[in-house]
Write the structure tokens for this entry.
Amino acid sequence: MTERFTGNFTQQEPIPDEGIKAALDVLRHGRLHRYNVAEGEVSKTALLEQEFAALMGAKYALAVASGGYAIATALRAVGVGPGDRVLTNAFTLAPVPGAIASVGAVPVFVGVTEALTIDLADLEQKLAAPDAPKVLLLSHMRGHICDMDRLMAITDAAGVTVIEDCAHTMGARWNGTLSGRHGAMAAYSTQTYKHANSGEGGLLISDDPDLMARAIVLSGSYMLYDRHLAGPPPEAFERVKFVTPNISGRMDNLRAAILRPQLANLFENCAAWNARYRVVEDGLRETPGLTIIERPAKEEYVMSSFQFLLLDWAEEDVLNVVRRCADRGVELKWFGGAEPQGFTSRYDSWRYVDAPAMPATDRVLCGILDLRLPLTFSLDDCALIARIIRDVVLKLYQRVE
Ligand SMILES: Cc1ncc(COP(=O)(O)O)c(C=O)c1O
């Protein structure tokens, strides 16, 4: 019997009851704007920031309108401006180079390895140039974390500021340190498909008072920054408040209300995602023609999606894998397609950037297949998905029709 999967790859779990109740409270009192508080009230957004800072072990946190906005704010806060060049991953999603472009700066792409992480040799080479960029926007794309000890040694030696894009690594760790705690600032997304769901939303953390004071004013605090519970002391704002533009992108209390109980449950959810990931990984291991991404012992990932490689496969065969899996209810995304589709995207899709060809990176990108693993999937669902992929890949690889 040919097995089929009938689940929905984009169906997230419902918002926890506690979040729905808190959201209803906000709707009933009507004070949705984060600075609109009653006498003695602390806004839900300020509480969220306080809780997120504590969860990440960061001194400061700021909640904003989206992950992309959080990244752009971090870039502005560290001083990136029009014409500046910013290093970033060739394997990432469109909002990442988009955030760089939004501040008038220019992305400089760094290659990807078969481990799906930034190519540190390529990074070192790019940093050896006399006019090397001074900022790296490091995207932990699809939750794959590079050797952060080596990366920080390279960037520290070159005097490069690192901003971490943790849209896919909220709750993950490298060598015991939470993702987002290596760079000067780290940005997270709370858009529906991430590790916490408020529809749209973003979070920014830092230990640096000047960077965070700038970020808070940039986000649209007016002179109400003293209503933040996870912001730097007043003197940090005194240094920046008249010279930092307001580029509004605040989070509102409704989203914060929805997020707080989800974040309180983050680490439990991480374990549930990883259990699903490991079932798919086990089911796909030792499939001829298919390469599993081996994860280093120092990496404690949080995988709400799964990637594997069909390295050096002909385009037609990969397309057949995607089509046959789709026929059996399994949605795979391919990063090698000539045209970007859905959310998939890669460096040569962003034609506003004059990027040189990267053949080694192209080879990896052309082999990447990607699927979501929402928490609405059971472990049995994941085992079935793996069996279907394995069967399709095997038949095509062995040319058994
Ligand atoms: C790797 C990565 N970085 C940043 C973002 C931006 O997040 P948002 O959609 O909240 O702007 C996304 C969103 O898909 C992403 O996948």
The chain is about 40% helix and 15% strand. The longest strand covers residues 60-64. The chain has a mean pLDDT of 97.
